[in-house]
């Protein structure tokens, strides 16, 4: 089982999206996200992934409903935060990311399975976001118990 953390970031009715450069999802659009590293807390992971994939510094404001899916024969728990940009500029590693763009919500809604990574999951995340199914960020205590 893996945990994926990422963010939905909106500005002027556009969502920040990354175009994937990895072989298995090459060219597909996704919200900035990635695996939570061992001993990393989930909120810090989401912030780190956005920075690595887009160049932006963000502040988490809330969390969307958590979902799970089967990817590559393993269960993935997907946690998407709502965030706002607080600094930085578009910058990314072209080995993993092909492009970073602010994409109009209507254009994301029209994306096909070939265009949008994890189509069903990401369509659900967008729907939850548009319906403002936001939960307090405080549900993550960030305490680690070892």
Explain what this protein looks like in three dimensions.
It is a single chain. The chain has 146 residues and is α+β, with helices and mostly antiparallel strands. It has a single domain (2-135), classed as Nucleoside Triphosphate Pyrophosphohydrolase, CATH 3.90.79.10. Helix content is 21%, strand content 41%. It contains 3 helices and 9 strands; from the N terminus they run ββββαββββααβ. The protein has helices spanning 42-54, 105-109, 119-130, and strands at residues 2-11, 14-20, 29-30, 33-35, 56-63, 67-71, 74-88, 97-104, 135-136. Strands 1, 2, 3, 4, 5, 6, 7, 8 and 9 form a 9-stranded mixed sheet that branches. Strand 1 and strand 2 (14-20) form a beta hairpin. The longest helix has 13 residues, at 42-54. It starts with a strand and ends in a 10-residue tail after the last strand. The relative contact order is 0.26. The model has no long low-confidence stretch (mean pLDDT 95).
